[in-house]
Design a protein that fits this description.
By secondary structure, the chain is α+β, with helices and mostly antiparallel strands. Helix content is 25%, strand content 25%.
Length: 350
């Protein structure tokens, strides 16, 4: 029997019921003085801390496909993406606002599963729902605003890198882009248990790593990798007025099974230009290198190059040949096709 579309009040009640089981075990976060049910929420910052604010779009057709992405992964990822920005500054996510537009036809099972993923992410990241807005539209549009906090004076910016600093990345790059390509070749909804698509569907922002680097004053600069190394590194260098030299051989790359390989799945291209990994890119002064382990809570930390005083970005291949690093990751205003379209190798610099 076909379910009748929900009214806006019913949608709001369902969101509230789904997220009432907050990260604090049913209690509203201490940072939220007034939660859902009024015209706006009230956030109470902790004494001695600064507030971190960020927001992120998650759009049907651009960031996810209704016939490919499980709705619970949409719920998870829309929050994970925004939380990653807080992690990149060494902050702690505290609460979020959800702005959601969706067609009436999706207010049933799809919406229920979406809330399951959102609730799982909220609990995992200890980030409670504080409010938001809903409306009706033919396609799904999601905007998430995350409020976090960081101890005063401890936030890590993109602008602190100095010549001689060593460039690090967490995790293995290109895994999410590989997952996207596998998903696009599939003729059905993605499996929640496929290890090749998991990082694309359910990314995990490196909150604990960012907090550790900030607390111990280790990273001189930091940002998350959302648009690809070749696009994000230039942003960090521009903010710091420096350059960078990368070594191809050092970049941790995704391992591609034979059954998943194709013309598009060269591991070097994926590592340089693939987006959606939500790993951390950070720089370290040379005298602090001994304080950084090879792994942090099981996540590899790898040095991939050095910050230079000359404002150029170059990459050394395995033979030692040097070439310019060209930004070929995600740019919604440069690429004609949406993010979910597989990129042509001709658009990549290496």
């Amino acid at each position: 029997m076909k379910r009748k579309p929900l009214s806006e009040d019913s949608i709001l009640r369902k969101i509230l019921a789904s997220c009432r089981a907050s990260p604090s075990g049913g209690r509203v976060s201490p940072s939220i003085a007034l939660c859902i049910g009024d015209d706006a929420a009230l956030f109470r910052p902790k004494p001695g801390y600064e507030t971190v604010l960020t927001c992120d779009w998650f759009l049907e057709g651009t960031h996810f496909l209704r016939d490919k992405h499980p709705p619970d992964s949409v719920g998870w990822k829309c929050l994970a993406r925004a939380v990653s920005d807080v992690a990149a500054m060494g902050g702690t996510p505290k609460c979020f606002l959800l702005s959601l537009a969706l067609p009436a036809s999706l207010t049933g099972r799809w919406f229920d599963d979406f809330l399951v993923g959102l609730r799982r992410a909220s609990r995992k990241f200890q980030c409670a729902l504080a409010g938001g807005d809903t409306t009706r539209r033919d396609e799904v549009l999601i905007n998430v605003t995350v409020i976090g906090e960081v101890k005063a004076g401890r936030a890590v910016f993109r602008s602190g890198a100095q010549a001689g600093d060593v460039i690090y990345v967490s995790g293995r790059l290109g895994e999410a882009e590989l997952g996207l390509q596998v998903l696009k070749r599939s003729k059905r909804l993605a499996s929640r248990n496929d290890p090749l698509t998991r990082k694309h569907l359910y990314p995990e922002p490196r909150i604990a790593l960012g907090q550790w680097l900030a607390k111990n004053r280790l990273a001189s600069s930091m940002m998350d990798l959302s648009d690809g190394l070749s696009s994000d590194l230039p942003r960090l260098c521009a903010a710091s007025s420096v350059g960078a030299r990368l070594e191809i051989a050092k970049i941790p790359r995704v391992r591609i099974p034979k059954y998943a390989s194709s013309q598009q799945t060269d591991s070097t291209r994926l590592a340089l230009h693939g987006g959606d990994d939500y790993e951390l890119l950070f720089s370290l002064p040379p005298h602090k290198l001994h304080l950084v382990p090879a792994r942090f809570r099981g996540v590899p930390l790898t040095s991939i190059g050095i910050i230079t005083g000359k404002r150029e970005l170059v990459i050394l291949d395995e033979s030692g040949s040097k070439r310019q690093l060209v930004a070929s990751g995600w740019d919604p205003f440069r690429e004609r096709s949406p993010r979910l379209a597989t990129r042509s190798p001709d658009n990549c610099s290496i």
